[in-house]
Write a structure and sequence with these properties.
Layout (H helix, E strand, L loop, with lengths): L1 H9 L5 H37 L3 E4 L5 H14 L3 E10 L5 E10 L6 E6 L8 E7 L4 E7 L4 E6 L3 E4 L1
Antiparallel strand pairs: 1-5, 2-3, 3-4, 5-6, 6-7, 7-8
Amino acid sequence: MVFQKKLASCCSIKCLPGIFLIFVLFVFLGGGNNLAFANTSTATNISVETKLQEHVFTVNKNTTKDKLREIEAYFTKTHPNLLVKFDNVQTDASGKVLSFALKLKFKGESKFNTRLIKTGDEKNMPVFRLQYVKKGPALKIQQSGTRNVTLLVTKDNMQTVE
């Protein structure tokens, strides 16, 4: 009987706003921190995954022979199963690339094979983005400019992708 009276007095209508306020504070402060942490953690994971994704190299009218050599060195060091070589590189008077042949050598191949030839002048130089793709391995080549096309080059074939 005494227990019922204490319980009834504790759960009176006067106490409900206080209990509700404590519950709301708990949800906002306790749950909010966990939610913010989860979002921060997710964002961090996304940025880390982005950093772990392969480099995307851009070749355009401002690219020099030195930059092409850097791209070759990156693939040699980081992806020995897919080597990149720029051959027959022609430059203008300032050293900027006008034309080249892109050659690839996949693991197990004895020589480099030409996969893309770019000829022309500075005005018509498209932008090429080169990216290593683990599945395959393959090289993704995105060309933008007068003609927009994306190619996926593997050891066995080269196909246009959407």
